[in-house]
Design a protein that fits this description.
There is one protein chain. The chain is of the alpha+beta class. The protein has 4 domains: 128 residues, Immunoglobulins (Immunoglobulin-like); 372 residues, Glycosidases (TIM Barrel, Alpha-Beta Barrel), CATH 3.20.20.80; 62 residues, no CATH class; 98 residues, Immunoglobulin-like (Sandwich), CATH 2.60.40. Helix 6 packs parallel to helix 7, helix 8 runs antiparallel to helix 9 and helix 13 runs parallel beside helix 14. It is globular, with a radius of gyration of 28 Å. It starts with a helix and ends with a strand.
């Protein structure tokens, strides 16, 4: 009896002496620091870790479905206790969260952090066998809209009057510096693959690791999302070795008369020469240790496409079958959905994507032959001799006529691509929750709109990514930023998140630099100059700091680093200003990219929000020994703040030091190393207006 009383008294004493329960110390995630192996196969034993403040909890439970298992205490380090559990994974995904008990306190931990309520939909997860290419994790990508990047070969330029498309003849723009028109699809500036070849040294010096090209296959528009021939690089981007035929007369709309164009894009000598030059470009890129991704447009094609041939370009050319528009007996008849089965020849009643007859919707469900052909294309370009390193998929969720078929298609697409090139990446364009496609058997990841581009734009500029809406209450709202990032990021498994394209802008959205002026509008309503007036490059530099320190693959849109402005397309597709670049901004991008590539923790480390306030944001990227802290002051005032850097695993019981590795403010940026003391895990900073600072510490150095 007395022994029982003594035991109870001892337990009460321990409880009284325990530090106050500290929920900020609780942490786990899906990174390799807290899950080993990071990308397990079925049958592997996986070790999962959880962190608490030292002597701060009684028990930690790992919960997966109906299974609730007590975790084992494994070690104490830097004032933290670590618990772990080994689990054997089968062939099915595992979803899990944690239950924490500390005295009478019971709480849970999931993707969103600490919660008092069960929220299993935000569980952490493992998909056995789901791997994304290591080269793509955190890789610095550079998107090129080819026609506007660099004109390296003027002999292949689209000519004025070469053909007719969407209410007008093609137009060759002679002045590289001319700004895009409201209706710009038929204007060509001459950018090509030779231009990219000529600028590879520039891209390498900038620090680019992956080049992503907007579509490069034969097609009549400057954006080339209306593919004419998936088998060949457009000779206007590649090589024209035989250049014969006539241009259209003024006012002529009949493309059967466009014999110069017909020869350029149907002559196999031009097509094969263009493919061969593309092979040489890929080899040159690979020789520099860089990768290349192509744009795959498989939901729809173009009205010029050889399978449809609405323009009758292929009708009388040797080596081509009759198109489905031309003949009811076309071998491609089932590739499209026709609504008048008795209106041949030249049947114009077919489905167009969003009703556009220039973008015929591909009819996969009724055409196994079409699916087979597209799978051949998917395999062809990632295989020798082309050896492309992956696909970006245009409007991928729209493909097919049903959700069920869409998922079946992308499962097969992944199988085919990965079988041909296991190291190829598959990244889809998608708005909204892409979770159902990111289960390890379809896409690798997405262009990260919801968990990067949109929240970053709201926080720094108050503008929506198209510049269509300004919300002043969201500018500088760190809580909204944090909630959006955590919620939308929770829809990714870690292998997807680490390869997601983190963009500030691209060919479909306004330039981020233009958003810094807070101006709502588009080219047709505001004009070009409104996108350039009162922009703030210091705000852009702040956003780039976040881009280079956030989980995922930081992706630049060509010319961002040179100071290019523009509203949503077509204004965002201005030419690269060769010879008139903002060299100071380019130097900043070089240093920011160099920083990103110098610290492995920025590719694989954990993320934790440390502090937030109005126009104030601080977060950490960390592993067991490395700690990188990012602090943002997005206001025009000097701000003094204390940052709890101990939450990244730094010691709370002894002083440490951190060194600055990059800093930018309203006036300038610099990379001069400056030492900052962290007393008992707290870092005190004075931030100048529009300052973003990155600091680093390594436990072995401290």
């Amino acid at each position: 009896m007395e022994q029982g009383i003594e035991t109870q008294r001892a337990q009460e004493y321990i409880t009284r002496m325990r530090p106050v329960f500290n929920k900020r110390a609780l942490f786990s995630d899906e990174t390799r620091q807290y899950r080993t192996p990071f990308e397990p196969e079925a049958g592997d034993v996986v070790t999962i870790r959880f962190r608490t403040l030292k002597n701060n909890v009684d028990e930690i439970y790992f919960i997966s479905g109906a299974v609730r298992t007590k975790m084992n205490f494994t070690e104490s380090k830097q004032g933290f206790d670590y618990y772990s559990i080994d689990i054997e994974v089968g062939s099915e995904p595992i979803h899990y969260y944690f239950e924490i008990q500390s005295g009478k306190i019971i709480c849970y931990y999931n993707e969103l952090g600490v919660t008092r309520q069960l929220q299993e939909q935000y569980s952490l997860g493992i998909v056995p066998g789901f791997k994304t290419p290591d080269w793509a994790k955190g890789a610095v990508m550079y998107q090129i809209f080819v026609d506007r990047f660099c004109n390296g070969d003027k002999s292949n330029d689209v000519l004025s009057g070469e053909y007719y498309y969407i209410d007008s003849q093609s137009n060759r723009v002679e002045d590289w510096e001319r700004l895009p028109e409201v209706m710009d699809v038929r204007n060509f500036y001459g950018g090509d693959l030779q231009g990219i070849m000529d600028k590879l040294d520039y891209l390498q010096e900038l620090g680019v690791e992956v080049i992503y090209l907007n579509p490069v296959f034969v097609s009549p528009s400057n954006h080339k999302y209306d593919i004419q021939d998936y088998d060949y690089i457009d000779p206007h981007y590649g090589k024209i070795v035989e250049d014969e035929g006539d241009l259209l007369w003024e006012g002529d709309r009949d493309n059967t008369h466009a014999t110069r164009y017909i020869n350029r894009v149907t002559n196999k000598k031009n097509l094969e020469a263009s493919n061969q030059f593309f092979i040489e470009l890929v080899e040159a890129i690979h020789q520099r240790g860089m990768k290349i991704i192509l744009d795959g447009v498989f939901n729809h094609c173009g009205s010029f496409n050889k399978w449809l041939d609405r323009e009758r370009i292929y009708e009388y050319q040797d080596g081509y079958e009759k198109g489905a528009f031309v003949s009811a007996d076309s071998p491609y008849h089932t590739f499209f959905k026709f609504h008048n089965e008795h209106d041949w020849p030249y049947n114009e009643f077919y489905d167009g994507w969003w009703g556009h007859d220039t973008l015929p919707k591909l009819n996969y469900e009724d055409s196994p032959k079409l699916q087979e052909y597209i799978m051949y294309i998917a395999r062809k370009w990632v295989s020798p001799p082309y050896n492309v390193d992956g696909w970006r998929l245009d409007v991928a969720a729209d493909l097919g006529h049903s959700s069920g078929y869409n998922h079946l298609f992308w499962k097969e697409f992944r199988r085919v691509v990965k079988e041909a090139n296991p190291e190829a990446i598959i990244i889809a364009e998608h708005y909204g929750d892409a979770g159902s496609w990111l289960q390890g058997d379809e896409w690798d990841s997405v262009m990260n709109y919801d968990a990067f581009m949109e929240p970053v734009s709201w926080f720094f500029t108050g503008l929506e990514k198209h510049s269509d809406q300004f919300r002043g209450e969201l500018r500088g709202d760190a809580e909204s930023f944090q909630n959006a990032m955590l919620y939308n990021g929770s829809r990714f498994y870690a292998p997807s998140l680490q390869v997601a394209m983190n963009e500030l802008d691209n060919h479909d959205h306004s330039r981020f630099l233009s958003r810094t002026n807070g101006r709502v509008g588009r080219l047709n309503s505001q004009g070009h100059r409104a996108a350039e007036e009162n922009v703030n490059k210091a705000v852009l530099r702040e956003a780039v700091v976040v881009q280079m320190t956030w989980p995922g693959a930081p992706t630049l849109y060509y010319g961002d680093e040179a100071g290019v402005c523009g509203f949503t397309d077509p204004d965002n597709r201005r030419t690269y200003p060769w010879g008139k670049e903002d060299q100071y901004l380019i130097k900043f991008y070089q240093k920011a990219i160099e920083m990103h590539k110098s610290y492995d923790v920025l590719k694989h480390g954990s993320l934790k929000f440390l502090k937030g306030g109005y126009n104030l944001l601080a977060y950490g990227r960390f592993s067991d020994d490395e700690h990188l802290i990012v602090v943002i002051n997005n206001s025009n005032e000097v701000v003094n703040t204390d940052i709890p850097v101990w939450e990244t695993g730094m010691s709370r019981t002894k002083d440490s030091v951190m060194k600055s590795v990059l800093s930018t403010n309203a006036l300038e940026f610099h990379t001069k190393e400056k030492v900052y003391p962290a007393s008992a895990g707290i870092l005190s900073l004075e931030l100048s207006p529009l300052e973003a600072i990155v600091l680093y510490a390594n436990d072995t150095e401290n």
